[in-house]
Every structure is written in structure tokens, then in C-alpha cells.
Amino acid sequence: MSADLDELVLSLAQRARAAALVLANAPRTKKDLALSKLADLIDASAATLLEANARDLAGPEAQAVSAAARDRLTLNVGRIQHLAASVREVVVLPDPVGEVLEETRRPNGLLIRKVRVPIGVIAIIYEARPNVTIDCAILCLKSGNASILRGGKESFHTNTALAALITQALVAAGLPADAVQLVPTTDRAALNSLLKLDSYIHCVIPRGGESLIRFVAQNSTIPVIKHYKGVCFVYVDRAADLAMAEAITLNAKVQRPSACNAAEQLLVHRDVAAKFLPSVARALAAKQVQLRTDAATAAILAPAQIATTPATTEDYATEFLDYVIAVRVVDSLEAAIGTINRDSSNHSDAIVTADEAAARRFLAEVDSATVYWNASTRFTDGYEFGYGAEIGISTDRLHARGPMGLRELCIYKFLIEGTGQVRS
Amino acid sequence: MSADLDELVLSLAQRARAAALVLANAPRTKKDLALSKLADLIDASAATLLEANARDLAGPEAQAVSAAARDRLTLNVGRIQHLAASVREVVVLPDPVGEVLEETRRPNGLLIRKVRVPIGVIAIIYEARPNVTIDCAILCLKSGNASILRGGKESFHTNTALAALITQALVAAGLPADAVQLVPTTDRAALNSLLKLDSYIHCVIPRGGESLIRFVAQNSTIPVIKHYKGVCFVYVDRAADLAMAEAITLNAKVQRPSACNAAEQLLVHRDVAAKFLPSVARALAAKQVQLRTDAATAAILAPAQIATTPATTEDYATEFLDYVIAVRVVDSLEAAIGTINRDSSNHSDAIVTADEAAARRFLAEVDSATVYWNASTRFTDGYEFGYGAEIGISTDRLHARGPMGLRELCIYKFLIEGTGQVRS
After folding, report:
1. Domain A232-379 falls in which CATH fold?
2. Which residues of chain A does B217 touch, with a Cβ-Cβ cutoff of 8 Å?
């Protein structure tokens, strides 16, 4: 059984590699044609997709998850239309492949060109939401990468139905059917086997909960691009415009608490704490946000009769993804920077201040993927950055950091032209 | 014992992370001062270094290795002077940190700047040659990264003596002593423990034999940049200038057979095989190169009385690193490209041809880090590319591909300036 699975996964990876070699040199017109076909097929296949989704929702795995997770799993006509629309959005994005990034003529006459090319074969390991199947397939396709998709068992039938449409679209456009493949089993052994195929697969992107991501990072011999979590900070400096600070804190916390770029932590400079905290705490409480505070914050808020809970050490480095925020008073800019570099997940952190010197120092010294001065952390997003699409946000330090769009799904190769040069 | 080792390695990684935060914002002048001091200290410490090296050479590990490996391990006055000179070369290289790579003003007024910054903490796991200790330390330092060096047991005393000089130089320049640390034990358990510290270490670069590199890739939860091997091809097209083809083949094979960019494989188009092979085979044989051939090549060379050995399937994908080359006749350009994409290590491959269309197709379709038209594969090298320094050559597809210099030891962060923007 396990040997059969190994063979199945190996064959899939080998076919992906062969497809990747074709796809890397496929013209934009063919890739866009496949995407347009796919959008049409999704629109035309609502009934089939809903039927497959109903089978998933009736299954034991989908029955076992929370109502929120079940909702994310569910397709309806509106969501299917949205899926097709998201595919059409990628059609109009520029093709990242082929751009000459650097060109040098060496003293010996060699012409060295560094050209953007696809990574090759990308495996995406994800949970639940069926739209991830389409998102990942289309972004990999547009960037010239073959993809191997391994979704969760809760949406296996929906994913299988979507993958069938993708295959149809590829074939209709004259591209290899193996350019996008869904792993046809949700057996964990198949995943383990897949993660060792570094001869054929060049990159793994896990998307989902932290435990899935850690599992992939620990078991993969293939390079992984990942984002564990977003423990994002807002620091209100002593020179902050306090109305702006309140608006940014509120937006960063409550505009979408389940997002990885939502604020989980608030630091307030001691000099403005007495003035700022009661007002922001009232505003947060009005949005049902629970405050987990240090003693200094609690002491300021107690007379104002605002309910707080003492924070634990763990709270100070927790991604709540919920209507909860941890609040601390700090003595200085340096203390704020030190706290963030110790407790944040190096995702997105913000300072609110009118003091440019303080802001410049914060921007330089906070060691995170995106550092904000007088803006909400919620802007860390491929669309907000103008990338047009996003495959994820990296908190790693290799290859890509922050939002990843089509260009981040590429690498480069060197094309070197000579006239018979040899090395002496 | 193992718990003690875990603690030792954890403390080292934590101190490296603290040093990295300082180093990331250290001005060029301080980094260059440390490098200049180090060069002077190396020059002034020849006696100490030779003594430490003598202890290594007398040890059981050094006694056990081959004469060639022992030679690589050995320091002498000339090599020590060369070490100091290589440090001074890095002083004059530009600082890669701080360059603004992109700058965008979004419609909502946000200013997004993508700025080059150091990766953070880099662990380098290497074998034997003591000059790697200096190379890696200085390139990481110049690029603002803290480094953790883990050398082989054969050169432990030499490495320890060199690390002491580095620490002196750092302190003299007012930089954190922990910016460069040598793991003070060669116990394998310490390495295993180190490779799991992904909270503090951001990148691992293994340098050495393939088994070391595979061990690191398989056991690290930290992202790894690596280069397994160089199985490099020269393809002589039917439209090749045969004199040029012979010169390139010879240079690629014998100019330095132990280098990863040396050619190991020769493919010859059937239309020119009868004319090209006897001449190139004689020239290779004159340089003591052993020919491992397919039947077609052997049949051509037999009448010319040139000795050949039948190649095995394994030979066709082997990195000989020696005076050996595998030779095959191919029927077409497509067959050459297919063979290379199947058997090469995607490091450096060359076509020799006067046919531009054939060359363009080869450059586009050969899926390797560096692809050459009418030049020797031996040019894949940071110095030859004009980088001034090289920490290695990547055959991975993430972050960096091909020669890696100072800029490839960096990543970027986004600095975002607003005027109170919140997301709606």
C-alpha cells in the first residue's frame, strides 16, 4: 500500500517536472487562453461543483469541523461566480516570465543576462477552502510553474471537480494536462512521500494552520516558503497624534480580526498612556474587543471602569485571530523596538508618531517583513501592494519576504553568450 | 551531555540573533574597520596560526584523510598572506545593505519602499579547508549578517585560532563579539540541535561533500541554500565551429577538474561526430583524460586507436571531479536538450554552435542555473561574474540561483510611510 502510494506520488512528480519544462517556455497567449477557458468552465459547471461540494459537506470530516470552518468549505452560486471572476483577474496581469533583470558585458567579452524564469514545480499543501485550489493553480500557471495541489480531506470532492475543470482548460489551450495535478488521495503517507521528492519538486508552499506548516517544514527535503503566523504590533509613541493612533489601532484590530496582518499587540509610551489608553480602550470595548493588560495599563483603566484581564506572558506573543488584544505600557522607543523584536512574528508592525527621527529609527530597527509609520498593519497584502494577486505572505528571510505575487513565484537563470571564451 | 549541548547551541544562536539586530544597522565604516583589523591580525598572527594548524595536522582525523584533503587542510606562510589579502579584497566591495530596490506610491497615498537588508543569522556548515572560516565570516559580516560557523573536526584548532582573531577584530571595531561565532564542539549532536533552531537562525548554508549537504537538507527545519553537485554538459552542435568546440571542451574538462563547474559530460551531434570526436579525443587523452563512451563514440574512435571505456548509465549523471569525461552521440538538438534536462544537475551547461536559432532554443529550454553559448562552463563563478566575492553556487530554485555574492546574502524588507491610512 505504502509502496503503491510512493509510486503514485513519484509518477505525479515526474509528470509535473516534464510539464514544467514545457510550461516554462509557453507563450503568454496560451497561458491566458487556459485561464479564460477555466473561468468559462467554472461558470458553466456550477451544478457539478455544488453537487461535489454537497458530498464533501455530508462527509464525516466536514461534519466534524466548526461552523466557521464549515462555512469556509461551502460553495454557493455567488462564490462560484467569484471564483470565475478571480481567474479572469489573473488573465489581465502581466506575465512575469522573461524579463531581463540584469545585463552585463564582462571585460572578456562575455554577455551575461539574468532573466526571470519560473521556479519549476511547486507543491502546495493546504487545508479546507476550495478556492485555494483555484488560486494556487492559476497563479502557478500564469507564472509558468507546474503545480501539485494537495488539499484537505474535508473538500476532496470539490477539489477533484475543480481539478477536472483545470485539466480541461489546459488541454483546450494546448498546454500539458500535467501542468496542474491534484494528489488523488488524502492519505498522510502520500504527503510524507511527496515532501522527499526534491529531484522533481523545487518548492513547497504550505497554507493553513501553524501545525500543518510546522509538519511540512519538519518533514520536507524540498525548500519551503512559509508564514507561520502574524503576531503584529501597534506602538503608540509619545509623539503620536492620539486620534490617528486610535483610528489605526482600531482598524488594525477589528477590521478583520482573523487576518494574519491584524494587530494582536498594543504598546503605548508611558508619557501618553494616561491620556490615550482610556479612550482607545473604550473604543475597543465598544467593538467587543477583550483587553489583556499589564499592571500599568490596568491601573490606568481601573478608574475609568473599563474591564481588563491580566495578560499572561504567553498572551504577549500570541496570534489571537479574534476580538482580543494584549496591551502594555513601555518606557521608551528602544523598549518598544526591543519588545517587538523579541515577541512579534516579524510579519507587520507599526509605529504611530509625529516624530520623524523616532519613526526612522523604528523603520530601520524593527526586524519585520513590513514596518509601518502612521498606517494600519492591515495593508500587508498583495492586492494592497499592487501585485494584483497573492499566493501568501512570507515570514521567512529567503527568496521572498512579505506579500508574494506572481514575480515571487519566479527565480532567474543566467544566459551567457560568448565567442569561444575559455577560462585561464 | 546532550542537554548541555542543546543549551550551548541555543545560547549561541540567541546571542547571534541579538548581534544580528545590531549588525543590520551598523554603518559600512565599522564593518570595514573590523575587516581591516582582521587582515592585520592575520598577518601578525602567522606563528599562532601555524602552530594551531600543526596540532590539527598531527591529529587522528587529519592523519586519516587523503593526501589531497590533507593538502587543503594545510596552512603555510603564503596561504596565510593570501587569507589576509582576501579579507582586504572584501573591504573595498560596496556594502549591499540599504539599497532601495523599489519605491511605489499607492493610490491611497502610502509610500512603499522595498529595501535590501541582511538575512539575519546565517549558519554555515562546512568541511576541512580553514580558509572557508574566513571567507564565510567576512562575507556575512560585510553583508550585515551574524554568522555561526561549524567547521570540520580536521581543522578544529586552526578554526578556533582564526575565530579568536575575528572576535578581536569585531571588538576593536566596536561591533558585537557575537556577530561571528564558531561552534566550540564538533559533536554531531550539536549540529542536529543547531539545525532545529529556526526561531533564531534564518538560513543554513552547507559547504562540502554531497553527503554533508544531504544530511543538512534532511535534518534542518531552517531554510537551506545549497548546491549538491555540478554535472555539467558541453553539447557540440552540428553547426559548431569545431576548433572552438575542442577548445571549450578541453578548457571545461581539464582547466580545473575538481571544480563544480568543470564539464563531466560531452554530447556531440551525429552529423559532426566522425569529424570532431577523433580530434577532441586525442587532445583529451593527451591531458590524461579517460573517455567513457557510448557505442557510437567507441565505433568512431576505435579505428583511430584511441582508448575508450564503455560508459555505464550511472556515468552519464556522474560528477567525476577528475580526469574523466563521459561522451555520447546525439541525433538532434532536441535530444541534447532532453538529455541535459534529464541527466545534468542544472548547474552549468554549454552549447557550441554557429546557428543562432539553435543557440536561442538551447538557452531557453535548458533548465539550468547558467546556460552558455560558445563559452566554457568554467565561468560560473562569483569573481568571473563580477561579484567580487562568492559564498557558493546555488542549484536550488529559491532565493538565489548560480553564483552567490554579497547581495545574495541579503533579503529585503518593506518600509511603509503613511499619514494615518486605515484599510476599509
Report:
1. Aldehyde Dehydrogenase; Chain A, domain 2 (3.40.309)
2. 198, 221
